[in-house]
Amino acid sequence: MERNGGLLVAGTTSDAGKSLLTAGICRWLHRRGVNVAPFKAQNMSNNSAVAIEPDGTGGEIGRAQALQAAACGLAPSVRFNPVLLKPGSDRRSQVIVLGQAVGHIGAANYAEIKDRLRGTVLETLADLRRRHDVVICEGAGSPAEINLRAMDLANMGLARAANLPVIVVGDIDRGGVFASLFGTVALLDAEDQALVSGFVINKFRGDAGLLRPGVEQLTQLTGRPTFGVLPWSYDLWLDAEDSLAYDGRVLGRPGPARGSQWLRVAVVRLPRLSNATDAEALACEPGVQVRLTVEAADLADVDLVVIPGSKSTVDDLAWLRERGLADAIVRHAKAGRPVLGICGGFQMLAERIDDEVESRRGTVAGLGLLPVDIAFAERKTLALPEGTAFDGVPVKGYEIHHGQVTRGAQQPFIRLPDGTGEGAVAGNVSGTHWHGAFESDQFRRAYLTEAARLAGRTGFQVAPDTSFAALRERTVDVLGDLVEEHLDTEALWRLIEDGAPAGLPTITVGLR
Q1: Is the pLDDT of residue 348 over 80?
Q2: Given 169, 201, 242, 444, which is the most exposed site by the fewest CB atoms within 10 A?
Q3: Which of the residue ranges 244-248, 408-412, 495-499 would you say has the lowest mean pLDDT?
């Protein structure tokens, strides 16, 4: 493989900032006129996006890689994330290779397929490097997971195979960032250390000058520079890849209510939550407060309850019942207040679910709030559909699901161009298989207006000028600005062009 034109962004932990830093570097390079592409060899996430290739075939990739593609000015492609693992339980994940589901694996038998996956990863990266001047790769988790090093496809295993220089990003907001950065390098063997070329400190609040003594000592200890300190930014909340980062939080930074009342939304934080980013589109609206919750009590006084997507619909439905959330949702609906189900959440609202694919539990009773039946098919639906709702309001979305409607409702949620319908509406309860539908601004406003009416929030008003696409574009621009303003971009460019410097010292740490 080529040496020049590549970089791997690794992290001290999950959620250290790898995804957003990769997107920021991509946007910075794209602004310079560089033909750049993102790459994540192996991702583990239930937040995915649909990519349609030039030949019309579809596939799914990690949502972070779709954001990184946008930062590069590119359409999403399965080549940007050749291996995606979607956890359906604590021990088992669905395997997506080049966009297509190929089966399920557990941790114990992952080793059986790693050589085949390694070949796919390296061939895909080599093809990207032929097509683009620069490829910015994102690692997974931490490269210092020494128990996983022998099977590694995404961190130092990729860097060694592709001869990529590596920078390590650490999240200072978690504390212990210098120990984490030093320890990450120290736990690697000498060959891996030779590619680790420097550090970035992320999410700092305050005067960066206070860090200078620590940064200087880190350089003395490791022989490696810190390329910069990125400040905490309140503008970065869209497209979080790890849905656990949402837990218990109010999403977004919505502007003040345009009317006299706010609309309060509770999104159930399912154990196997997928595509939680659907809630972000609601949270971008002024006057809409969106909170993720696992407590039935939190549903008692909200206006709208949303059941989002799930990687394991039947198992998460059982969890709803165990937590008392199912009863709370039914009470909310029977009180005439709005309930919305998206993808797996839509399936849970059905009367019956027949699942011999994900949970293999056969036929189970749904919540019975929508007059539909669902059956799971072996082949996954992947599409970028378009339609209309609310008397002609345009809506677009993306579909990633095994569940199929086998008995449809008389009133669909969305009308399709061929005259058929999608999803279902029964009074104050609505459901759709479409992710991303609420990124369509007119559709989102129409739905929230109707939800407010059903909830009795007569003082709520939607904003006529909120653009979700503009907010997402602003996100990648902010990331590019942070890289340009706070990192040593000249040194970063030399690293991308020339590879890891020769003669980087090896850190040896032993018991005394």
Answers
A1: yes
A2: 242
A3: 244-248
**206-233 burial string, b = 16+ CB within 10 Å, else e?**
eeeeebeeebeebeeebbbbbbbbbeee
Q: What is the DSSP string of 456-467?
A: T-TT----TT--
CA separation (Å) from 392 to 2, 55, 327, 446? 52, 31, 35, 11
Q: Is 284 an active-site residue? A: no
Q: Please check the confidence at residue 313 and state whether its pLDDT lies above 70.
A: yes
Least Cα distance to 319 among 294, 300, 338, 339 occurs for: 294
Neighbours of 511 (CB within 10 A): 3
pLDDT one-digit tens code per residue, 459-478: 999 989 899 999 889 889 99
DSSP reduced 3-state for 347: helix
**Separation of alpha carbons 417 and 435, rounded Å:** 18
Q: Is 112 helix (H, G, I), strand (E, B) or coil?
A: helix
Q: Is the pTM here over 0.90, yes or no?
A: no
Catalytic residue among 343, 401, 402, 486: 343
Task: State yes or no: is 402 an active-site residue.
Answer: no
Exposed/middle/buried for 147, CB within 10 Å: 0-12, 13-18, 19+?
Answer: exposed
Three-state DSSP state, 203? strand
Structure tokens at 26: 């991509």
Cβ neighbours around 368 below 10 Å, total: 12
Please state the length of the chain: 512
User: From CA 266, how far away is CA 328, in angstroms rounded?
Assistant: 12
Residue 280, classed as helix, strand or coil, is helix
pLDDT number for residue 100: 83
CA distance 437 to 386: 9
Which domains, ranges and CATH numbers included, belong to the chain?
A: 6-225+488-498 (3.40.50.300), 246-468 (3.40.50.880)
Backbone φ, ψ for residue 21 (5° rounding): -65, -40
Sheet strands (E) in 99-165: 100-106, 134-138
Check: CB of residue 358 under 8 Å from CB of residue 378. Answer: no
Q: Per the structure block, which two tokens stand in for 419?
A: 């005259």
Distance CA 452, CA 99 (A): 38
In sequence order, which residues have a C-beta less than 8 Å from that of residue 147 and are 6 or more positions away?
Answer: none
Handedness of CA 101, 107, 112, 113 (dihedral sign): positive
Q: What is the pLDDT of residue 149?
A: 84
Distance CA 274, CA 487 (A): 33
Could you give the CA distance from residue 90 to residue 107 in angstroms, rounded to a whole number? 10
HSE on the CB side for 419, CA within 13 Å?
0
Whether 452 shows a pLDDT value over 60: the answer reads yes
Residue that the structure tokens 């709702």 belong to? 389
